[in-house]
Write a structure and sequence with these properties.
Elements lengths: L22 E5 L3 H4 L2 E4 L4 E2 L2 E4 L6 E4 L4 E2 L2 E6 L5 H14 L5 H10 L28 E8 L5 E15 L15 E7 L2 E6 L1
Antiparallel strand pairs: 1-8, 2-7, 3-6, 4-5, 7-10, 8-9, 9-10, 9-11
């Protein structure tokens, strides 16, 4: 492909800017969270560099592995804390702080994603596109970027995400104005892909 040299051919044909308020977030495992999401990020990616030594200046070369940042969201907490509790239960199921039964209960009863059938054989372990060994403990998620007219223009799909942190809930009787509780959460994931719509 040859780069256009004409100044007119190199001008963009879409001059609108991306709005930070035009998005939709969805996550299968947390249906009561996605409605209340107020902020989300498309995680950054870094490739890093490899260094080729020479007798003179060392020469940088592209790295070999991509490093993906965490997916971060902020959401309003509903009055009965159902969305906060659903995320708390997911983390408790993964970390089982009191008893191993917490993992089993979350996997078999609480999770919105069915568990991988017992005895299922997986031949592609280690590949990014491979099935996750226990689907019930993971979820898929998406961020839909919308145009200024609320039409979908880009979808970012996250594979096999799981929560790694959830923020504090701070109650305060001295507050002079009602500011509804907002909490942040971070997720790790296998990979994300972008699809232009």
């Amino acid at each position: 492909m040859v780069t256009a040299t004409s100044p007119l051919a190199r001008q963009p044909d879409k001059l609108d800017y991306s709005s930070p308020t035009q998005f939709r977030f969805g996550i299968h495992q947390l249906p009561k969270v996605e409605f209340f999401v107020t902020a989300v990020n498309i995680p950054g990616i870094s490739l890093g560099t490899a260094i080729m030594s020479t007798p003179y200046k060392d020469i940088p070369l592209p790295g070999e592995k991509l490093e993906y940042g965490n997916l971060s969201i902020e959401f309003l907490v509903d009055e009965y804390l159902e969305n906060y509790i659903s995320l708390h239960n997911w983390m408790t199921g993964l970390g089982f702080p009191q008893d191993r039964e917490e993992f089993k209960t979350y996997r078999d009863v609480t999770s919105n994603t069915p568990a991988t059938p017992a005895g299922a054989v997986q031949s592609d372990i280690g590949k990014v596109g491979a099935a996750t060994p226990d689907r019930a403990m993971f979820s898929d998620a998406f961020i839909m970027i919308l145009s200024n007219k609320n039409n979908p223009i880009l979808e970012i799909n996250f594979q096999d995400i799981f929560p790694i942190s959830i923020g504090d809930l701070s109650y305060n009787q001295a507050a002079t104005d009602v500011e509804y509780l907002t909490v942040s959460a971070e997720f790790a994931y296998k990979i994300y892909t972008m699809t232009t719509l």
